[in-house]
Amino acid sequence: MAMKPNLLGGMGVAVTGVVQSIHRHWYRTPNSCMGGWTEKLPYLGCLVHDSGDVEEIAEHVICRVICGKASAPCSDATGRQAKCGSLIYVALARVGDMTCSVPPGGSENHSLIAQPIPVRRQLPAFTGPASRCLSQSISHVPAYTFTDIHTSILPYIMPAPPLRIAILECDTPLPAVVARHGAYDRIFTSLLRAAADGLAQPGLSAASGLEFTAWDVVHEQSYPAPEDIDAVLISGSKYNSFDDDPWILRLVDFTKKLLAQRRVRILGVCFGHQILGRALGAAVGRSDGGWEVSVTTMDLTKRGQEIFGTTSLALHQMHRDALGAYPEGVEALASTDKCPTHAMYAAGRFLSVQGHPEFTEDITREILEVRHAQGIFDEELYRDGAARVDREQDGVVVAQAFLKFLLEE
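^ Glutamine amidotransferase domain-containing protein, sequence as received from the core. Prediction below:
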């Protein structure tokens, strides 16, 4: 295995002891944080050289890049949330001056820099406690060491990628709503961009920090590839979430597959909230409380107050189906007298609400009038909903909670 000279610009004999200490930290601290991942990482063999010094220096590059918390994940590594995986790729790209001996799927003299894509895709996703554990830098390393390394890898660091959200459209809005506001993908896109503007969070630009795709899961039954997205948002629908229509069963199955992994996160709204509950094993059916419509104030649990950042929450409602009970293992966030299962959360996995943060007064009023004209809503229900339709509601607050959930480690 060959490598170009002066990989790090030359560290010199004076820091040999430091390098050896880093070598020990590399195999103890990160390995402990990530449950032995250093033995599982593809291409790790590329960093091993007959010379112990070279081996230690190469591993020192990775350790400092991770522990130094380089700011920008690279390109499409393993998703925006997989910061540790992304940073490892940055280090591997720099050490890619070396050639490997027959890496997985490669051949002799395969260069990491020449073909970085396979490396990115094979990196495991490290999130949550592992990231926080690795945020501790090694204080006794000379400052210039990290500066030199950071400068050397700059050509390989890409801007932070956008948060890739796939909107699973489970219905088409009423014609008048489509004419004024567009389909659900456009409605949710507008809401989430407004939420991003309000958050004013570094690295999350409403213009460039969010990337949306729309998927018709009803008629086309089209779905995104999980490796191409960071989150899915399952929309509301006029259909029954407990029916066994082929497209609904496929949606439940897709949701189960997402729940079985730990990278792509799930947002659920109304029907989507119920589909998520069904995928988790909860019973879904007609609510004992009957229809719940228009702007309604919910009671928040202590955890709900933390997630949404408020003591109470008002949202547009439009449902008579509900989860019979929360699935096992979730955190309950909200309830009303008519529906005790209004919102649920699992850290790093999903956040869903029974209400409609995307609805406006105009959208809810149109639905009330059409369903009243069709005889779905009687006069009493219609008048009650119409009397509350213009009340203040917290759709943007919920959307901001969605975004913060997607960004949390």
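The longest strand covers residues 292-300.
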